[in-house]
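Changelog-adjacent note: as of this version, every example in the card shows the full chain rather than a window. The one below runs 463 residues end to end.
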Amino acid sequence: MKVVQEDNGHNPAPAGCGLASLSLDQLVAILQFLPVQSLIAFGLTCKRFREIADSDNLWAYICVREWGRRAVQTWPNHGKERGGWKMVYRQMLMLKAGSWRKVEQGDVGPAPRASHSLYTVADNLSVYGGGCQGGRHLDDTWVASLPTEISEGIVWHRINNGSPPGRFGQSCTVVNDSIVIFGGINDQGVRHCDTWINRGLGSGNLYESPAWELVDVVTSPPPRGAHAGCCGGDRRVVIFGGIGTEGNRFGDTWVLDLSESPPTWHDVITSASPPARSGHTMTWIGGRKMILFGGRGIRFEVLNDVWLLDMEGAYPQWVELRPRELQPLHDRPAPRAGHSATLIFGERILIFGGEDARRSRKGDAWVLDPKAGVQVGCGSSCMPSYPQKPFSEDKLAPRFWKKLKQLGQLPSRRSFHGACALGSGHSILVFGGMVDGELLPGAATGLGFDAEMHMLQLVPCCT
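Full-length structure tokens:
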């Protein structure tokens, strides 16, 4: 990597310019802490500042700062050779493409299913529950060690140390090295309101991990299924929405604080809230902030709205997020339910699959950048964001929605599948779900349950 050197041939800046009097090392030390748009603006002022702002060492630092060292180290190398680290930053920001490959699972593994839980703890992958052919629920738990190279495939092992009663449409949340399951529906249509935890999965041998434990909570949300949940930071679990015992859809928010003794569910009251829904997703983006997307509303309509739940302050608040600039309808995901929403590097979310109002399954992939959105009806800033009019120099302007070009062995269109991120957040795994199947007499659409596993790796787009 080459660092730009001082050059006495540059025209001197006016005597009153304090920046011009600083040494190269002093300038670089300052620039390392600037937002990218401010760094670009600095480089537009003069030739000398442009060379400093384009320094390869500086952009290598910016890449690690913005995306994390693990994500940068695992990003494909050819961008560094063609355009240096600034090109790498551009590729990792724009995220134009993802490459699919099928993951081999050996001879024994989980049966075809949908509305199950798929999660990773440390270097282990696990599947619990779900629904299968005939509307039957499943109560099994499977684990597999993740190899260094996923192309080697995985080997599943069934855990026989007890699992919660069978169900599908439950929420499953990873909190540090624990797994928390709440609610769900059994094959008799009964909605659950129980809370289960499996502790210590990140240490020792996962195959000999502690059994699932029923948590004796003080209060509990009403019974439900097809809700969404995620980590809320600080050993918290957050859930929203779902379908109740009478088929009603909820629009409530609940928080479980595992640091309390005994753990307690709290009903969160906010001045505004997303409309009631089911089949949506919630994704933790760090701190005490979560993103909700999509789902099916009370009139059975499907949705594609985006909401931020901010619990950083004394009073939690929901705010709707929208693109900063008007985007055509084809430049944002269509309304859907039963999709997956997985956190990837850069605090962004990868949306895959789902189904529309007619239950037609989808196979598209989108990247959502919450920081590139504007907050609707929120007087104060709820989260860090990009400038209102971001610089477009070098195509470094972020976008609220970005559709991925999909390469490789594309999986079938699907809904109500499981998805989770791998390690550095540059790849996701997708398992199971409902796919197009054989069309039976009298049925509007064919329906099948899947047991395949696929990996989507984010890559530079080759056009």
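Structural remarks: The first strand starts at residue 97 and ends at 103.
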